[in-house]
Design goal:
single chain; alpha/beta; Arc Repressor Mutant, subunit A; D-Maltodextrin-Binding Protein, domain 2; 3 domains; ten-stranded mixed beta sheet; two-stranded antiparallel sheet
Amino acid sequence: MTENKLPSLRGLPSVRQLRAFVAVYQSGHISAAADMLSVTQPAVTVLLREMEERLGVRLFDRSTRALRRTEAAAEAYGHAMRTLAELESLGRSMVDFSAGRKGRLRIAATSTVAQTLLPSILREYTALHPDVHLLIDDCAPGEFVERIMSERVDCGIGTLETPIPGLEEQVFRHDPLVAVAQARFFASDRPLTWKQLGAFPIITVKAGYGVRRRIERAASEACVALRVEHEVSLLTTALALASGGLGVAVVPGSIVGAASSEGLVTRRILRPLVERNTAFIYKRERTLPPTAASLQELLLKRLKG
């Protein structure tokens, strides 16, 4: 029993041959098909003959006056139209994919960034790219780098305390640390120094977290011992405790605007001015998918703005 084998690619018509066949089939004349395709009549004739040779059938009966479609041509026409439509659809889809308008985007972000900064970014992004499917991996700070390095995500939005080999960091936001508390804690609306901050019960993240290390370095530079009375895992929790009157939260300024901070007032902290940078982060040797590259472009535009 002989097995039916699929024809090799050499036995299949090319796209140019299919287009020439469809044009001749629809118009009934070589000259009209040549005009439709903006090629010469001999070129159409050659393409048609090549297609017949590849398929092993005659598609048109030729006379001196006209072409007459064969039964094979009627059968081939439907296949040719579907094939060309699929190829056009593929081309449009790939254009959208390469422009980052279509596909999937996986983003790692610490829980605080996911709750505060990320919503406004993604609202702007989805308005520009509504067909991109977003997957947000909101993780603990200690898991953030691993998510990107292991390629479980395409990119991350967050902070690197020190440069990490293999990771590229593009800062798009410089965020100064501020003091946040009920109004009764502050005697005036003037900025505070780190020395003055030493008089208050402080609410901040646990030791080892990025913001905490910045706070400790600033206090050391100002030669002040801070009274850290409440330690938390999330910056939004620090704000909640400050709202309850338990002390002064030291957090990045963007957290205050993005999280619920009703009844709280904010004071800048100077001498020294301390900032936490937020960046678009991705694995260096890995090509960014177009969806991630379009997010990168959006964030860098925000920085320039």
